[in-house]
Amino acid sequence: MTPTLVRQQLPRAGAAPRVDRCARARDWAEIQERMLVPLYEAVYRRLDVGPGTRLLGLGCGSGLALLMAASRGAAVTGIDGSSPERTALARERLLPRGRGAHARADARVVEGAPEDAAGIAGTPPYDVVTAFEPVGCRAGDSEGLGELLARATPLTGRGTPVVLAGWGPPERCATSTVLSVAAKLAEPLRGGGGRRLALRDDLEEVAQRAGLRPDGSGRVACPFGYANMDNAVRGLLSTGLFDAAITATDQVQVNKELTEALHPYRRQDGTVWMPNVFRYLIARTP
After folding, report:
1. Is residue 241 part of a domain?
2. Rounded CA separation 49/247 (Å)
3. Residue 219 sits in which domain range?
4. Would residue 140 count as lying in a domain?
5. What CATH number should be reported for the domain holding residue 129?
6. Cβ contact 131:153 at 8 Å
7. In what order do the strands lie in the sheet with 128-135?
8. CB-count burial class (<10 Å; 0-12, 13-18, 19+) for 150
9. pLDDT per residue as tens digits for the range 198-236
């Protein structure tokens, strides 16, 4: 084995590359988050979300799904403890003192754990809970979701619908091949355990571990479409799924290999289009 090959296989030494988290959050809100709009719409139609609905959004990110529920008349609370930058953007969109065009007095955004979303004494329990961040991409993501759901259950009433989301079968998700680049580049750092393929019963298993009863499911086409290659690279990097790859290699290499992986999905007009299918499960609290 040559010295050059050894250096390519080992993680980079020294300080980890810095990620501009504010810029990433903006890219998520402006480019990537909208890709799941068909999923949000399908769930809200099925559950008849509207005036009188008290919705709790777990992992609310920058708040687009909350905004859509609020526009249907629902009172919404979002909670997210993973990204202060995204949470700040959600507040801008939803809160009366923010700059969002649809700011509402019956909206709340909380940075923290599910228990922090408890209402004041006498407030009715939440009657819809959503966890729209899809499982089936990061290793261990389903375990973390199960714990999150179990902690949110006390904030609901009996039989409350809880929505879980996940990636569809890899053969129906073009983006799956692109995400494999992240796993390949991060392998020296993670020992090959950074990503796994979505399994058919992932969502049901999560629900059962959280003490929930599965009560219906559906599949929704959510194509990822971008105006150009730069837009696609920025959007996918904003998911955070490539951060470990950047740490294991560097930003330049990740951008290069991500661009190459996206090339088959680039159209003649320069746009990038990847068809995907996402799955959702509706479960009920005990």
Report:
1. no
2. 41
3. 15-173+196-225+275-284
4. yes
5. 3.40.50.150
6. no
7. 107-110, 75-79, 54-58, 128-135, 161-167, 277-284, 213-221
8. middle
9. 566 789 999 999 999 999 999 999 999 999 999 999 999
